[in-house]
Write a structure and sequence with these properties.
ATP-binding, Helicase, Ruva Protein, domain 3, ATP hydrolysis activity, ATP binding, CbbQ/NirQ/NorQ/GpvN, 14 helices, disordered N terminus
């Protein structure tokens, strides 16, 4: 009997076939998710897709838009469709960190013994809507942003882990800035994407009027569970990324740093640029976008499509550039032109 050495090629092929099957199955489930969301949210497909990309990447999103454009409805719908425990906190100037993360109370037992008991705050959920986050004080903002980064909170020296998965969708009004505390640049970096929400087009607004002012209003149907979402997040990280995509990400992110950018206009117009976390966000988000579109691997087009929501909140213009009317979108377009 002749023994044949195992080269490992068969195992590699089996692993690749399994990965392809898993990605295709996830794509089918995500189509069901989008269909379920589409019954409730009208004319905001890009917003829905960017929010789903954020959740599939395991990150948090900053939703920027005027009042009445469906930000709260979107978060409620996502919680129902994805099977997540969702909560909402209205941020106000008098909101304290304990109002979000929780606090300890002194209780007396039957034997007369006193002990402290931790009462968890609303941050102990799977999907938290931080409504108008820039209205809270910097101290309260920091408490939430620390929880976002560390996935736990510490009260009286005791760490309490947050539920898994844990995602924050924070909203911000871009117009009304009186009485607000803008998020510091270092804290903005905690958000994977900044999602801009605009007005729906006429056809979508017409459909929304007909669907939401009748005797019955459509309800979102659960299409995924929390466990399945976590499995999807793990699968996203296994998707291979080609060298061309990796090069595009590095070219885009490193070119947006004024200290070493090869573009003279960028060096002149930007005060500071994105750090390595932006490149990490693009790597994950491009994979998630590919799966959401039913593809097995990301492309350079995914990098270009996600460049603005990933980079916009991680860059700042110089005073002279703002005085000249330069917009961050213009700078990002210049950066993308080097790749396209």
């Amino acid at each position: 009997m002749v023994e044949v050495a195992d080269t490992g090629l068969s195992n590699h092929s089996a692993d690749a076939a399994t990965l392809v099957a898993d990605v295709e199955a996830l794509g089918d489930r995500l189509r069901q998710v989008r269909d379920s969301i589409g019954r409730v949210i009208f004319g905001q497909q890009a917003v829905v897709d960017h929010t789903l990309i954020t959740l599939l990447s395991g990150g948090h999103a900053l939703l920027v838009g005027l009042p009445g454009l469906g930000k709260t409805k979107l978060v409620e719908t996502l919680g129902a469709v994805l099977g997540l425990d969702a909560k909402r906190v209205q941020f106000t100037p008098d909101l304290m960190p304990a109002d979000i993360i929780g606090s300890e109370v002194l209780e007396e037992g039957e034997a007369g013994r006193r002990a402290f008991r931790f009462l968890p705050g609303p941050v102990f959920c799977q999907l938290l809507m931080a409504d108008e986050i820039n209205r809270a004080s910097p101290r309260t903002q920091s408490a939430l942003l620390q929880a976002m980064q560390e996935q736990r909170v510490a009260v009286a020296g005791v760490a309490h882990p947050l539920p898994a998965p844990f995602h924050v969708l924070a909203t911000q009004n871009p117009i009304e800035q009186e009485g607000t505390y803008p998020l510091p640049e270092a804290q903005l970096d905690r958000f994977l994407l900044e999602v801009e929400i605009g007005y729906p087009d006429e056809a979508a607004e017409r459909a929304m009027l007909l669907a939401t002012t009748g005797a019955r209003e459509a309800k979102p149907v659960q299409a995924l569970s929390a466990g399945e979402l976590m499995a999807a997040q793990a699968l996203i990280r296994r998707i291979p990324v080609g060298e061309s995509v990796l090069d595009a990400i590095l070219t885009l992110v490193r070119g947006a740093r004024p200290e070493g950018s090869p573009i003279e206009a960028v060096r002149r117009q930007l005060a500071w640029g994105p750090g390595p976390r932006a490149a990490q966000a693009l790597m994950l988000a491009t994979r998630a976008r590919a799966v959401l579109d039913g593809r097995l691997a990301p492309s350079v087009e995914d990098v270009l499509a996600l460049a603005e929501p990933v980079l916009r909140h991680r860059m700042a213009l110089t005073f002279s550039a703002r005085a000249d009317g330069v917009q961050l979108a213009d700078v990002i377009t210049t950066l993308k032109d080097r790749i396209a």
